[in-house]
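This part of the workshop introduces the protein records we will be handling. The structure tokens are whole numbers drawn from a learned vocabulary of backbone shapes. The record below serves as our worked example for the rest of this section.

===
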Amino acid sequence: MHISKSAGYAVHGLIYLITKSATQPVQISEIAEYQDVSRTYLAKIFQQLSTARIIVGQRGITGGYMLAKEPTKVTLLNIVEAVDGPVMRRHCCLGVMGCEVRDHCTVLDVFVEANTRFANYLDGITLASLVNKQMAFNPPYAYKKTRAKK
């Protein structure tokens, strides 16, 4: 039950993508600048989102990225798993391979249940709902870190 920094950048990048334009591609350099993150790093993340068919890339001078499907059809679980891999795992928390009690381990059962609830929670949150919540704060919101004045 861990969400990486990369998955966080993916979610924020997709929110920016939607709020910037629903009909025109947005360049990765623009999204990276807005998030104050390396273009190369964000490009790798967006490639994973493209492989998962969450976004589609368009080449050329006016190219960039667009959502591949409606924001109501993309969940946080889709995004996190595209970047971090499967959320659902059934493995020993102690790292014991071939554990004799694995099929009857109450600790493992509790962790699997927690993981299932976590995955179900993420699957219930759509990109559209995140955009709506974010826009209610103070559109347009900025990611850029405020630098301390000297």
Remarks:
- Confidence is low (pLDDT under 50) at residues 146-150.
